Amino acid sequence: MRKFSGWTLLKEAFGGQQGWTPQWRRVAPQAEYDAIIIGGGGHGLAAAYYLASEHGITRTAVLEKGWIGGGNTGRNTTIIRSNYLFDESAALYDHALKLWEDLSQVLNYNVMFSPRGVMMLAHTVHDVQVAKRHIHANRGNGVDNEWLSPEEAKAYCPPLNIERNIRYPVLGAALQRRGGTARHDAVAWGYARAADAIGVDIIENCEVTGLVRDASGAMEAVQTSRGLIRCRRVGVSAAGNTSVVLGLAGVRLPLESFPLQALVSEPVKPVVPCVVMSGSIHAYISQSDKGELVIGAGTDAYTSYTQRGALHVNSHTLSAVCELFPAFRRMRMLRNWGGIVDVTPDRSPIIARTPVPGLYVNCGWGTGGFKATPGAGHLLAWTMARDEPHPINAPFTIERFRDGHLIDEAAAAAVAH
Amino acid sequence: MSGRRIQQGGRVDRSRAIRFTFDGKGYSGFAGDTLASALLANGVQVFGRSFKYHRPRGVIAAGSEEPNALVTVMRDEARCTPNLRATQVELYDGLVARSQNRWPSLDFDVQAVNDLLSPLLPSAFYYKTFMWPRAAWHKLYEPVIRRAAGLGESPTLPDPDRYSQRFAHCDVLVVGAGPAGLAAALTASASGARVMLCDEQPEFGGSLLDEPAATIDGATTADWIRDSMATLRSRANVTLLTRTTAFGYFPHNLIGLNERITEHLPAPAADMPRERLWQVRAARVLIAAGSIERPLVFPGNDRPGVMLASAARTYLHRYGVAVGQNVVLVTGSDAAYAAALDLHAAGVRVALIADVRADATGAPLDLARQAGIEVVTGATVLGTRGRLGVREVTIGVLARGTVNDTRRVKCDALLLSGGYTPSVHLFSQSRGKLEFNEARQAFLPSVSAEPESSAGSCRGIDGYTQVLNDGARVGAASALAAGYSVAAPEYRVQALEFGMHGLPGVLPQASPLQPARAFVDFQNDVTSKDLALAMREGFESVEHIKRYTTTGMATDQGKTSNMNALAFVAGELGRTIPKVGLTTFRMPYTPVTFGIFAGYDRGDLFDPVRTTSMHDWAVQQGAVFEDVGQWKRARYFPRSGEDMHAAVDRECKAVRTGVGMFDASTLGTIEVVGPDAATFLSRLYVNGFSTLAVGRSRYGILLRDDGFIYDDGVIARIAGERFHVTTTTGGAARVFGMMEDYLQTEWPDLRCWLTSTTEQWAVIAVQGPRARDVLAPLVSDVDLSAAALPHLGVTQGRICGVPMRLFRMSFTGELGYEVNVPADYGLAVWEAIHAAGQPHGITPYGTETMHVLRAEKGYIIVGQETDGTVTPDDAGLGWAIAKSKPDFVGKRSLARETMHAPDRKQLVGLLTVDPKVVLEEGAQIVATPGQHAPMKMIGHVTSSYHSAVLGRSIALALLRGGRARIGETLYVPMPGGEIAVQVTATVFYDVEGARLHG
Ligand SMILES: Cc1cc2nc3c(=O)[nH]c(=O)nc-3n(C[C@H](O)[C@H](O)[C@H](O)COP(=O)(O)OP(=O)(O)OC[C@H]3O[C@@H](n4cnc5c(N)ncnc54)[C@H](O)[C@@H]3O)c2cc1C
Predict the structure, then answer these.
(1) What's the complex ipTM?
(2) Does A265 lie at the interface with B, CB-CB under 8 angstroms?
(3) Which CATH architecture has domain A27-109+183-254+346-413?
């Protein structure tokens, strides 16, 4: 792997940038691998990287039906935070957040992790109670989260409207300073490049169409649009398509897939310095390094696999944004798009073995899994390498939906991002 | 100075001079000008600076595809709009515009140093550096990058303008009013079908407006447009919308239109909305969106003065502006010859036409040569010169890989045509399938996904005769598909009808590209070298190349650049264009103001405010309100000088010792009626209802299918087949939805009907030892005695002569009633009760007091004591579950082992060791003091108040294995230190419940 640095850039400046090489190799699938990851999103690529780098399983392939990062990884609003309520979730998301903190250095790829702070607004007495409960629980878990008065919230984010006479006035906010954003594409490419450098095959345009089991019922091979590939250790990390892929092995999961949309404005000079989220009026906003306001909406009400959201959902989000930031009413929407998110009944993910020996799954991240990318990949790799969960993902089983050990962040927070 | 107004011609009104300023300098134009045409007429060439290298840029187009000429228009301090295209800004008197992304001035921009550093800043350089030390990205580099990026500045003051919304239905929606769209609208509307026609421009006519010399059925284009519009206007079944962009295609033929209403007016009337969102549901959509000319890609193709040939023609014919006095054309298509001939005819010197096609021949070339214009074929462009405007172009002839006949040609405008790209944006948004047409080198609509059709040049048809007739035919076919029939007319046209296809990609050069840069995406400063670098680094999917280089991601969404990028990539990879594939077209077609999506949903209308019948009374009494769902609820009624604490203490005492009244109208009410109503409720709720006697009520708990508490309320049997069900305030809609869901999908056999009656009832809770005394004189047909109407009894009668359902119930632990009257009588009855209660000291109280009173009794509030993880048993409500019922929602889940684990969080009471300390709601509980994070947290405080009647604080909490811990001392860690608490039972006051039965 050619090291990236200011120095190599300078050298290349004199060489007309001719010396750069592919960030990952374009390879045809081999006949057999020690491990296969289905789905070349951030999670899948991270899992492959950690399988090779931490568990020495370098004969690993990532199979992606389209182009890597083209699923939700490349479609999300990149909010990163770890101030989740329950101990299990806080441990999971903070594990990821800690990995984010030096990910650029580890991957030698600037993923632009920017801890600019995530501020979650409270608009009602109930919101305040919920926010405070989070803050107390987070503090107990060693996860930073602090309460801001409306004035402090405005000082942190000057364009915010904190007038008391608006429909849903800001009564305060919970701020996680370590939270922020990162550059989604760079995460996929950075993991791909680093994984490739230690032997992982990244195979694009390779759709998995069958999961083949041996006489004992264990994983034996995957059927793909580019042929049969033998492998006895297969991890599925296919986000909105997980139920489809697992269905190939006859495994049913309690997942529903919904369209979720986001949009950006035309770029403007810096105006929103942090991430602002409002769960109760459904608006999420930050500003990209390019200057676009990045705005997330809610999911559509109906399940679907179409990668676009309904107009009225988009409209509702923008009306909420305009209430919180009345100056943005004149800003203009530049691009709107949708992704398919996989939602579990308790809005917490699954990183676990499946009933099929040799088949593992990482899914159910719904509207909020970008922030978990390094952590999810790390834990999926661990689980696949050892055929048992890491203590952090041990509670995130499939069985919890049967036995009732739910980790219900949605019910607790009414915010799923 | 190159551009100038020619003596005559154009559609501007030369009798009306318009004054405006750009970057503080005053100019003058004519009515009908755009900012771009007026500035060009004044000789201005530099309009803006590019995003990354801050290179000076001129205007290259005349319409919405313009990538460079972005400006900020300031009507006043609050009405300031960044990033508008000068080509779309219509001039009005007093218009103030400013260039962007430059400092200190447009002509001298300090950040233009980026241009010198460009070898260091190839595409995506930022992924490769700025990583050391770790914090430096966020602290140092990112802020610098952010300041350099961005285009204009966001407005800073609240936008005072209004935005409106309309919904419409029609038979045929025609998008685009060029020749195809006009012919389509004329034909379709002649059938009687309801037709809507929209165009983003201020005038209908599209490309016909650029063809003054052509005739249609003998009439000049100007006359034909005028007559056609008169015909359309005279038809009642036609809706015409100018300045209206069809920006989005949504499922089931829903089209979003953005109409700009006041932006072009010098002084809009105060009652006019600035813009409007139309949501049009059309039986058929007819896309006649035309096509967009592509620039050519060669070194130095981004200098101010370099422009699309079609734009030069538009400026000439629409605005009477010659974009230069000495122009050179470089073309890969026949279409540009029309511009050359027209400019020549208008007296502009056409120094040279460099045709990049080696085999170009035919009428266009002949006509040009006849006019005395030199034409070179097989040409390529090696470079351009000129600091703030093109002054010279270097042309050569390419043959067998070498360039000969290199020559420098002086010019003050360089006009390009790479051919036209059909505008398939909307078609693609509709999820229709595109197919690449080799002959035209263009993607064209192929298989439709929605009931729509394309007509004219957006489906690759050129020549006015063909386009008009295609429009007419598709118009007739669309009308027919919508149920109307009409014959399509045949149009006869006389015009220069030159072919529009050309050569996408980068102009061939002799050797690999010179150090000079050839720009593909102007606004984002993406060059062919950047694309090559992306491929060198292994990015081969177009989506990857787009994201890595940002090509096509600027505010023009690649309208002029995407095909060139694609063709270049295909060439470099040695693949065909369709093999490389197209990036997805995303809505909106052009940027759309946030305001129209919000429309009327702003301020108080952002979300409907729901108020009860007694709301105004509470306002007059000075109540402080809280938002609960959409409702405004009185939280407490402070008297002068009281804070919340004092008011709540007083209100609580009044209820405990005398009587209080409370507005409970916001609780959801559902009338459940039918022979199977009892069965239905028994299957839904954990409680049994078949045995509930008429005239009795019962506290009901509703679970989700996972066994956790979802809602609660009181359910009364009004008659054998009629139940009055109450829900929580916030849960009303979702409980009703859940009921309908089960009734319609799980138990459609049950004969049972649901009606949401929340807003039909006003509900007044009268609570306290004197409650009966207050009500007694007001009611008739009702026996209030404890024997006749015991706790949880329900009866009907009258109060103040008004029909009433009277519930004997209590959420305070005191003797209590809830008076339900039709909402319209609510205020009158409330006032009557208030008056009758005066001798008893009746005190209105709010939700905060209600919370304290119920907490003193250990009653839960769903959403506060529960959070979706709490079972009835956890909440101490296991008694409510009917043991003998075969099933109810959640029963199977409750049977799971984990639902009975002894360490589940259970509801308990907490008493602080120091009675003065009121715990914070949400605070965590630990077993041992002195812990540091991560602590072992075993529970949390759900409710916490000062109790006036007890003279101390009380709290409820969910605690692991809580009931077994009663009596233990635990700790609540707070930033300021730990608070010791004692675990107790949940009922703090009147443990035996005697007061309830008074
Ligand atoms: C609009 C939007 C906004 C969001 N905002 C946020 C946010 O602000 N913060 C946050 O934390 N999260 C957010 N999310 C969620 C987040 O994007 C996802 O949870 C996360 O990116 C999932 O990553 P992944 O790698 O699992 O999935 P993906 O990136 O979707 O990767 C799955 C991959 O599997 C591939 N695949 C599927 N089927 C097959 C097959 N049969 N064979 C081969 N490959 C297959 C797909 O092509 C895809 O590339 C948002 C999501 C959306 C849609």
Answers:
(1) 0.96
(2) yes
(3) 3-Layer(bba) Sandwich (3.50)
